[in-house]
Amino acid sequence: MPMSETMEPKILITEAKLQARLTELANEISRDFAGKEITAVCVLKGSFIFFSDMIRKLDLPIACEFLGVSSYGNKMVSSGELKITLDMNEPLENKHVIVFEDIVDSGLTLSYIMSTLKARKPATLKSCTLLFKPDSLKVPVEVDYHGFKIGNEFVVGYGLDHAGKFRGLRHIGVIEHGH
Ligand code: IMP
Question: Does residue 1 fall inside a structural domain?
Fold first, then answer.
């Protein structure tokens, strides 16, 4: 059945389950980085809600940075073409950096971000993704922290969109299986 723009996403991860897992994740990161100030990098646009919840749950001093990377446009398959559309003003040299991503699908975006930021010589560089689709990986990428592993399905909500829609859902919904 072709996907319709008006189709209601089915609930995959409820708001309660999401928030409980984020608390666990934030506690784990807070323990790992205890005594350090971190630079938290929000990868726009999809991570902005995840990011804002995480920085409030982390028990650490945090500097917030925002990075724009162009990826899918309105399509549901990766073009493989990536560029930085919004860069940070602050240098990362000697900082403890954690990149917050919404979802790792092919891994192309995160691997591009990690190699770009590694060149800026941070003291530590870790990645934290809300959702991880291990079966969709096309390139090897180090995912240091993840909220949930999911299958090869197209998800929306909690910052994630399809053609600009559904970002405001409080849960993660699924609109198409096995694309
Ligand atoms: P990757 O480069 O293929 O790992 O894809 C990463 C980016 O693709 C994410 O930051 C999202 O913007 C987008 N993306 C991948 N899968 C989904 C999905 O299921 N729903 C919404 N966006 C997705």
Answer: no
